[in-house]
Amino acid sequence: MSKQTSLVTREPFDRQKHVYRNDAFAELVKNAVRFFNGTPVHPLASPEKFHGTGVYMIYYTGRSKIYSRYSELNRLSYDFPIYVGKAVASGWRQSRTSHTVKKQTTELWSRINQHRNSIDITKNLSSDSFSCRFMIFEDASSDMIGTVEAALIKWKTPLWNSFLDGFGNHDPGKGRYEQAKSDWDVVHSGRPWADKCKGKTPSQKELLVGIEKFLSKHHSPF
Amino acid sequence: MSKQTSLVTREPFDRQKHVYRNDAFAELVKNAVRFFNGTPVHPLASPEKFHGTGVYMIYYTGRSKIYSRYSELNRLSYDFPIYVGKAVASGWRQSRTSHTVKKQTTELWSRINQHRNSIDITKNLSSDSFSCRFMIFEDASSDMIGTVEAALIKWKTPLWNSFLDGFGNHDPGKGRYEQAKSDWDVVHSGRPWADKCKGKTPSQKELLVGIEKFLSKHHSPF
Fold first, then answer.
1. Which residue of B has its CA nearest to A25?
2. Domain that holds residue A113
3. Is A105 a domain residue?
4. What distances in angstroms separate CA B140 from CA A20, A27, B97, one per listed residue?
5. Would residue B21 count as lying in a domain?
6. Which tens digit of pLDDT belongs to each residue from A173-203?
7. Yes or no, beta carbons of B157 and A92 under 8 Å apart
8. Exposure string (b/e) for B155-178, b if CB count within 10 Å is 16 or more?
9. pTM for this one?
């Protein structure tokens, strides 16, 4: 046996030695969410380009029958996003950004704009009916982006992150169109690449019934 | 204009109002990483099944020429993982787990075992040459999994998360084999689904040269 493997534990496995506990973390996420809830709300069609990565929430504020509940829910304050997402530095998973930090990229702004385009290309939605809120994370805090997004999705259960999934999808690309288009693309058809997808999907009718049930269950104002 | 849209900010856009700053977060991640570095190291072929989700690091401890530098680097302590990964609760992104919390799932153990299988099915690696360390996150702390994984990848720059990507991939599935197999699968052929992928890849020779350069650059002991 080499020196190497002799460092491996010979003790019996004890699960407790592997469990991490830290209540400060939950507090920190709450602090970030509290900050987020105090940031200004802007029209989705945000005119000004800005730098940075972070988390955003999109709110429906229009009058379409299917989403009318949101107008009720958000009447006094923006509490019920229809979608929560994040934009991180490209290549972060491969840790490439640690070597070539580009301060001046616009991931968050670009992602919000992709969403605006996805909405405006549909037959039954318009970006005029949406608002958004976003939170920029810089330097070490940027490691927190995924956590804050996950916490917000868990807490808010936004419709487009849960029952009606697929809004954030990208063109699957050549050779991958055998998969089904997303439920979101069934209800809001328009994205040209979604129409190339061949797989079987639920009907729009089924999904509309499902949306109504979902909103009654998760976003009841009472 | 409806009441609704009147809540949208009329002030000019001010980027500073959207920037979140909190140094406590970096400290908390360091605390988690410190805990992780104190957890026992086990052979990759871990015998006992355990419950939970979390983060793991895999270390190479064998004698193959291509990875021999790792034996040097990790001689005194396990400081240089070849791979860092995470296992989160299935469906967490759709926030489904918040409603049906299953305490007794074994995602982390399963993921480590998938990796063991990926290694043992190759022609040039064996799980006997690998060790691992893992950290279990429970309840609210589980939101921290992605952050700790990202921090570790940035900090450690593991070879299989960066230059030689693809170890953590899954079978792309029917209709998606037009893509290229991963660089990892080129160097460590064996997974049957990888051989079905048709796309163009770098040669094994090129990649071996690249691995040597990468290890010299990032994992130099001096």
1. B141
2. 37-218
3. yes
4. 11, 10, 12
5. no
6. 887 888 899 999 999 999 999 999 998 999 9
7. no
8. ebbbbbbbbbebbbbeebeeebbe
9. 0.70
